[in-house]
């Protein structure tokens, strides 16, 4: 079921382990513990203290509390966070005369509170570190995509593993790594630990069984993946990441400009995340780049489906091609689009004047 900021589902622990282990697009899986209405901080404290936290985790585990609010009448989220932390710790102290320590950077247990108007929900985080942290990213390039967003973009392109895939602005290689992992049936959570391992309900035998399912899903596709970038530092980062992810043998990387490079196959899927003026590339640079990109696609990529993920909503106008699809997506708080251009011979050029010289 779709809910604000996510989807809700119910299931047993096996389901929870599987979703954490296999979801390529989720950021975290939260376990709903309590829901209540409140008027002030004291109400929140009382409801949070009424939860039997000792049932959920041991006092030896370190703790962190996060609060997110929308239209809450309360003034200070920091104060609410402190009150919830106090409530959890006081509950332990009353029963055990001990309380869990707080660890903001690497907590064993995370409690999330979501306040919407006068309603509150408390969750325990079964993921721990957000799920886009997969454990393969060692090479650092500018403005990398989050892994779960990159996986979602690949899914939206409809790419099939028997098609060539090219990212001609590959940066640290996120889209290529995620595409290869998907095609090979590799679990995104295979190289990391999870928050649920620190909860009392943790059942290591069920967890081992879920991890064992990866072997059965493994595939050996004959992948044809291509990446290029103008920046040698980005290519080094990509090389490192592809090697960490164990997929370097399927990916041909080269240093080239998207405006000059040729298509590596007669047809396939191109997917790229051009700089969009927020973190790299100025708006003026991009305004003169996009028309050239449109020309390069028409000249060299007939037979390709091309996808561009960007927050620069001028792209379709400036590239002078008619997108065959435009999917709204969010990159954090930034509204973006995934534009699809089907490049066929004698392509869908827009009958409108050149916006740069107009
Ligand atoms: C937003 S980053 C891509 C990040 C990448 N998707 C990742 O997750 O790491 C944009 C990349 O485009 C590259 N770039 C910019 N202009 C280019 C051009 N004309 N040809 C090829 N690459 C280019 C930059 O060097 C940068 O690595």
Structural notes for this entry:
By secondary structure, this protein is of the alpha/beta class. The protein contains nine helices and 13 strands. It has helices at about 15-20, 40-50, 75-95, 145-155, 175-185, 205-215, 230-245, 285-300, 315-320; strands at about 1-5, 5, 30-35, 65-70, 110-115, 120-125, 165, 225-230, 250-255, 270, 305-310, 325-330, 335-340. α2 runs parallel beside α3 (about 75-95) and α4 (about 145-155) crosses α5 (about 175-185). The N and C termini lie far apart (about 50 Å). Bound molecules: S-adenosylmethionine. The site of S-adenosylmethionine has 21 residues, from α5.
Strand order of the largest sheet: 9-8-7-10-11-13-12
Kindly report how far apart the N and C termini lie.
48 Å
Q: Kindly report the oligomeric state of this protein.
A: single chain
Give the overall pLDDT as a whole number.
93
Model regions low in confidence, pLDDT < 50 over at least 5 residues: 347-358
Largest sheet: 7 strands, mixed
Rg from alpha-carbon coordinates: 24 Å
Task: Specify the structural class.
Answer: alpha/beta
């Amino acid at each position: 079921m779709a809910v604000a900021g996510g989807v809700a589902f119910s299931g047993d622990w096996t389901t929870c382990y599987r979703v954490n282990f296999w979801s390529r697009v989720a950021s975290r899986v939260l376990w709903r513990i309590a829901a209540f209405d409140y008027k002030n901080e004291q109400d929140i404290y009382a409801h949070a203290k009424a939860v039997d936290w000792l049932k959920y985790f041991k006092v030896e585990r370190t703790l962190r509390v996060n609060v997110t609010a929308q239209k809450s009448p309360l003034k200070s989220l920091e104060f609410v966070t402190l009150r919830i932390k106090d409530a959890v710790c006081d509950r332990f102290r009353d029963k055990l005369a001990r309380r869990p320590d707080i660890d903001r950077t690497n907590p064993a247990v995370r409690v999330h509170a979501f306040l919407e108007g006068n309603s509150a929900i408390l969750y325990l985080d079964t993921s721990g570190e957000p799920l886009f942290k997969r454990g393969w990213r060692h090479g650092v390039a500018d403005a990398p995509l989050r892994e779960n967003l990159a996986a979602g973009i690949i899914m939206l392109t409809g790419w099939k593993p028997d098609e060539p895939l090219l990212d001609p602005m590959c940066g640290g290689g996120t889209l290529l790594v995620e595409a290869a992992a998907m095609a090979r049936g590799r679990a995104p959570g295979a190289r990391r630990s999870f928050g649920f391992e620190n909860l009392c309900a943790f059942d290591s035998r069920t967890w081992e069984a879920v991890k064992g399912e990866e072997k059965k899903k493994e595939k050996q596709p004959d992948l044809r993946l291509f990446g290029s970038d103008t920046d040698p530092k980005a290519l080094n980062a990509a090389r490192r990441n592809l090697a960490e992810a164990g997929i370097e043998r399927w990916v041909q990387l080269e240093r080239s400009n998207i405006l000059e490079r040729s298509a590596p196959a007669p047809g396939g899927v191109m997917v790229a995340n051009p700089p969009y003026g927020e973190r790299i590339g100025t708006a003026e640079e991009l305004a003169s780049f996009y028309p050239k990109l449109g020309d390069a696609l028409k000249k060299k990529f007939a037979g390709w489906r091309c996808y561009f993920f960007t927050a620069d909503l001028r792209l379709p106008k400036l590239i002078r091609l008619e997108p065959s699809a435009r999917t709204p997506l969010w990159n954090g708080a930034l509204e973006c689009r995934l534009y699809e251009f089907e490049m066929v011979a004698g392509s869908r050029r827009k009958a409108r004047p050149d916006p740069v010289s107009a």
